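Repro case for the chain-ordering regression, as requested:
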Amino acid sequence: MDVIVIEAGRAERHYWLDLWRYRELFRVLAWRDLAVRYRQTVIGVLWALIRPLLTMLVFTIIFGRIAKLPTEGNAPYALMVFAGILPWSFFSSGLSEASNSLVNNEGLISKVYFPRLIVPIATIVVAFVDFLISFCILFVLMGWYSFMPDWRILFLPLFALLVFLTTVGPALWITSLNVKYRDFRYIIPFIVQFGLYVSPVGFSSSVLPGQWRLLYSLNPIVGVIDGFRWCVLRGQSELYLPGQVAGIAVTAFFLWFGIRQFRKSEKSFADLI
Amino acid sequence: MSEDAVTVENLSKSYLIGHRHTSKKNFRYKALRDVIGQEIRNFARKAAAVARGQQIVQGDEIEEFAALSDVNFSVKQGEVLGIIGRNGAGKSTLLKILSRITEPSKGRVILRGRVSSLLEVGTGFHPELTGQENIFLNGAVLGMSRREIRRKFDEIVAFAEVEKFLDTPVKHYSSGMYVRLAFAVAAHLEPEILIVDEVLAVGDAEFQKKCLGKMNEVSRNQGRTVLFVSHNMDAVLKLCTRAVFFESGRVKLEGDVEPVVSHYLSSQSASARLVDLSSKPRPDYIAGGRRVRLVQASPSNSESSWSLPFGQRLSLDLAVDAESSVNEIEVFVEIYSLRGFEVATWSNTCSGVKLPLRPGINTFRIGFPELSLLPGHYFIGISLVGKDGIEDYINEAIFFEVVSSAEAVKINAQVLGGALVPSATVSILD
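-- result from build under test --
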């Protein structure tokens, strides 16, 4: 028989087991968010395609045509931009939606027990589905420019996993902070907007002077975007390995830190929300 | 099986709450300077809280509030425990701790068995999703597996009586349908320990009866341990075997359900000779802008209270507030036993008296010289009916007690219930 002991400050001994037990709820919450996402919209799931497409157009015109920044090798500028927009838009929507997820599910949090980790992660999974849908555009673009990928495209799933983990860490941290200090609701759109310009979304990270490259790679999204471009653009520019290592290290740190912070404040969520 | 399913030891929970300085007498006009000074102080305090990683509390003064202090009790396997007490006595906090939603500040709880808690019906329902989708969603929220839900799906739909609307988003449901569906899902949970908060306060009378029946079935026939919080003493008496009475965060009394409930009720009624009726809850159909309303009730005799010795007759003074003069109003008084059975009814029409109302407060004295209530607890429902229908209605307006007396012992009253009919006649026929 299950015996549950509830005590002040007692760490949940079966936390990860509990998380596994509640996988059904995880599935259902993700499904709910997906099912509701585009209800009562006119063009529905097309939104997942239109948003990145429009961003790509604007960036190609501003950075490629007006600022005349170089592309990578001989790859079309639009394709290079889109390979950056894909992971970036997942990261930004994952971060902003996850950070509000607990507050939006206040009813659940204050009325039922479950490992709270489920809620933000389910939200990120939903953003991940949008991300997968926008891959269609990538393939259409490749066809349009008759730009065929080579064997490097096989590494794409690895980088997709990397961007997922890169999102989860900071998202968990900010989510738990947002419950306690609602100021983050106003800070996050700011972070996301700011991040768009410090990350190499609209331009190639090879435009940076070499000595700054490693420092720049401490932004974990830089490594992810470089990786995406390397996979999609047949390695027009070589993968900058020290940068990749730095990016992965930062991601791993944030993942550990995010989960730790989340679990530390998890028990007081119902009181604070 | 006599092992305790739930053990609660020295449980305490406190919250930080903030107060705002409200208009103190000599401080009615706040100068801008004061407001700015206050804001700066508050900001400094919040910044300090953030730096220390503590929560921020709105308000000018912060106080620690003990919602529960040093609570001890246990529940045996298969027992149905009623948790009663006034609003703010700590019942809901206790349930939140038991369902692991919030953490206690001190103390310990041991739960032996799978726990499901039902603090609200329809938790997690999403208005955009259809009835069918919401059954699966709500089921998962309450801890059911998909297979379990699928197995019980037809039963749930039949119980909720929403077959025709399964593919309609629940935002188009009537509130009754919504509540029925929500309760139906919850009623088909199969935990070993069930924690329920006030779910019966929803739906129409018919459905409430059905819910009560289902709860009864769950506890009696299936041998589950149930913890049940309610303000409905009738439901508590019907369902529970034992009860715990909470008062300001502490256990006041624990034991068999009947004595605990009567203690609770008499503590409620004894506290005020003058019952303030204006703040009592009314049913929804009584609109806010009533022209005539019940204001106050008190026992007629200035030295008597709501605790009458057997033999003394019930008599009460009733104050009614009228906005304008009313030609005729009908006053109904209904007396119920603790378990909700109607024991006696009266209206002024039966007495052949017309009651007009002047604008302002009108007071009536209503006496029941022939009514001989046996020792026990009763409550009174009062309604006012004008020519356009019900003007005001309070279901549980007054609680009162008839206590045993020498006369009661003489007639062996403890084995009898309800009202005695002293004027009844009997004769022997051949």
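Ordering looks correct now. The longest strand of chain A covers residues 3-7.
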